[in-house]
Specification:
- It contains three helices and 20 strands.
- By secondary structure, it is mainly β.
- The chain folds into two domains: 19-95, Sandwich (Immunoglobulin-like), CATH 2.60.40.1590; 102-283, Glucose Permease (Domain IIA).
- The strands form four sheets. Strands 9, 12, 13, 14, 15, 16, 17, 18, 19 and 20 form a ten-stranded antiparallel β-sheet that branches. Strands 3-2-6-7 form a four-stranded antiparallel β-sheet, with no helix packed on it. The chain has a three-stranded antiparallel β-sheet with strand order 1-5-4, with no helix packed on it.
- Strand 6 (76-84) and strand 7 form a beta hairpin.
């Protein structure tokens, strides 16, 4: 009995080690993520950027703000507004310039390039639903940042490319494309709540997951949707299957990540080794 008590006493004297969850890779460029040190305050700080709340997480006893930067962010100094231990303040950080490649896509279905007049009402409805989903903020859920790859396949499209459909300029690519056979399972990269699903004109069958504190993922072009709005999903849980619905040239998953309502590069949430594995089939060609 004495040895057990002694062991308990010895264990209680050991330092407590808090295992920090992985962070996305920092890349303070348009479409990237700036990670700002907020210090060691006893209470969780609050932060905002461009009048939008920013995800704050604890890492190695430090509070960090993870700021999503839009593709339209201008290089130079930017301001983060903070409330730390009740004191309001500002922190300045720098955004560097980044040039993205062009992508020229030819679509046989010209309606997906120049929609008919009767399509526009549906498109406007789709856009309104998307804006509402991306603006979601769930403070009750601590965002888990250790993301899994949502589908096994081949990296077929990278983030940020300036796109031309049938030589007509359109918005830059707002996500990562992973090519896979129709029916390949798509999983939740992290725990969250399903906040929107539907069949969109351009995006096809689509699912939005709210992971907490403004961290939202969107999956598009799905063959089937296996979840419902309001459903809680765990990391690795199936949410549907790969397809080629909407504006596509072949079966693949379009994966978008939004942070404080700015679309950011999903590659920053995956390790370099994972990205290399997704790109490996391209290198064998």
């Amino acid at each position: 009995m004495r040895s057990v008590v002694s062991l308990i006493v010895m264990l209680s004297l050991l330092p407590v080690v808090t295992l920090a969850q992985p962070l996305p890779r920092e890349s303070a460029v348009p479409g990237g993520i700036a990670i700002i040190d907020l210090g060691e305050s006893a209470t969780k700080p609050q932060a905002s950027y461009e009048n939008r709340k920013v995800l704050v997480t604890r890492y190695n006893q430090q509070w960090l703000a993870l700021v999503g930067l839009s593709l339209s962010a201008k290089p130079g100094a930017h301001i983060l507004n903070t409330t730390i231990a009740g004191e309001e303040g500002t922190l300045e950080f720098l955004v560097s310039e980044k040039k993205y490649e062009e992508q020229h896509i030819t679509l046989k279905n010209k309606r997906m390039v120049n929609p008919y007049e009767k399509d526009l009402e549906r498109i406007r409805s789709d856009q309104a639903r998307s804006r509402k989903a991306f603006a979601s903020w769930d403070a009750s859920r601590e965002a888990m940042l250790d993301f899994a790859t949502p589908v096994e396949g081949r990296l077929s499209g990278t983030f940020g490319k300036k796109r031309y459909f049938n030589e007509q300029p359109r918005k830059p690519h707002s996500g990562m494309d992973i090519a896979a056979a129709t029916g390949t399972p798509i999983i939740a990269p992290a725990a969250g709540t399903i906040i929107e699903t539907g069949d969109y004109f351009f995006n096809g069958n689509t699912v939005f997951i709210d992971h907490g504190e403004g961290l939202i993922t969107m999956f598009c072009h799905m063959d089937s949707i296996g979840v419902k709005v309001g459903q809680q999903v765990a990391r690795g849980e199936a949410v549907g299957a790969v397809g080629m619905t909407g504006r596509v040239t072949g079966p693949h998953l379009h994966w978008t990540i939004s942070l404080n309502n700015n679309r950011v590069d999903p590659a920053l949430f995956l390790s370099q080794e994972t990205i290399a594995a997704l790109d490996a089939p391209n290198q064998k060609k």
